[in-house]
Amino acid sequence: MTKKEEFTTVAIYSKTGDGVETINFQMLASLANAARRCDIDLNNVMQELKLEIDMSGDPRKRMSLACFDSLFKSVNARKPSRHFPLIFGDSFNFDGLPELATFVTSASTPQEAMRVLDWSPKLLHPNLHFQIFNLGNEVALEVKVFDPEGLYNDLPGFVEASMSAVLKFIHLLSPGSHLIKRIEFRHAPLTAKSDYCDVLKTEVLFEQASNRLVVDSSALDLPLPGGIPSAHLKAQAVILNRLLPDVEEQTLSKQIRRMLKSRLSLLSEPMESVSQSLKLHPRTLQRKLKVEGTSYAALVGEVRHELACEMLKGSVMDIETIAANLGYSDRRSFTSAFVTWQGISPREYRNQQ
Question: Is the CA virtual torsion 68, 132, 317, 222 positive or negative?
Fold first, then answer.
């Protein structure tokens, strides 16, 4: 089993100056919905935990794992009518992220939409880690909850809520499909097994080696009705530029790569367009990139290569459209470049996937 991808984020917890935990509006909406479905007085829980509403508007702020642990314990003590962690995940407020919903629902294939998992840790919680494993006929999405202090690693209630939220995302992507084969949890059942089947509606195994959701790999490439490539690309640009701004110090080459990926039109424009956006003189930009051991032309080529492979594997766009999206004047120029990168033509590459 080979690890394919891993995504992490930096933790920024919601606390006031005196250390009181806060909750943002999107999370509050999800919790309130879940509380109603479980017949729980959320206001009473918030008062007990001294939870306040976050007014900073910082979308990166999240409740700490310690706070989630206290929340689940407080709700459970009130004997909810349904298993709260699963209902909480199933109540995740995708409507509060219309760009994300558009990205998912306009995808041409499940594989294309799965890129949202790159961003989910930042959109859901900074201690949430996803790893994707290719298992031949199956693909496993492993969910890990990492606590630097080691107190709340793989917190069961949080893992269950995260798994339920991912499952909701998949159902949003392809309603009524049979993508999901089973769900596996490391921990023992926290409630009756029938409660898991009632919400998750798939086979659920407990006390397994890892927490993961397993899907049929062949189903990931099936075309989805209603795919809108142009809307998909525009939603991606909005997500990268507005919902997931880079907050960590990074190299100039990483900045440029992100810009090129989020604004594909730049791939066909001169370097001056990028330098102007970065407020750098073109010669300064070239000099800085040289110090980093690369060049603007090399970055454009790398981004085109990466996106070309993604589009050929994860979408039903024809090769002419892919070539145009990547800034090539015609299919022949794109094919020539792709053969240089991969040693085979775009059509041969797609047929091998």
Answer: negative
Q: Based on the fold, state whether residues 26 and 164 are members of the same structural domain.
A: yes
In the structure encoding, which two tokens stand for residue 312, read together?
């050929």
Report pTM: 0.65
Place of tokens 């809108």: 228
The model's pLDDT over 148-200, given as tens digits with 9 standing for 90+, comes to: 888 999 999 999 999 998 888 787 776 666 778 999 999 999 999 999 999 99
Picking from 324, 255, 248, 268, the residue whose alpha carbon sits closest to that of residue 294 is 255
Q: How far is CA 99 from the centre of its chain?
A: 12
Q: How many CB atoms lie within 10 A of CB 30?
A: 22
Domain that holds residue 152: 2-221
Show Cβ contacts of residue 181 under 8 Å, excluding neighbours closer than 6 positions: 138, 202, 203, 214, 215, 216
- β-pairing, 180-184 vs 212-216, is antiparallel
Phi, psi angle pair for 326, to nearest 5°: -95, 10
Provide the domain count of the chain.
Answer: 2
> How far apart are alpha carbons 42 and 19 in whole angstroms?
21
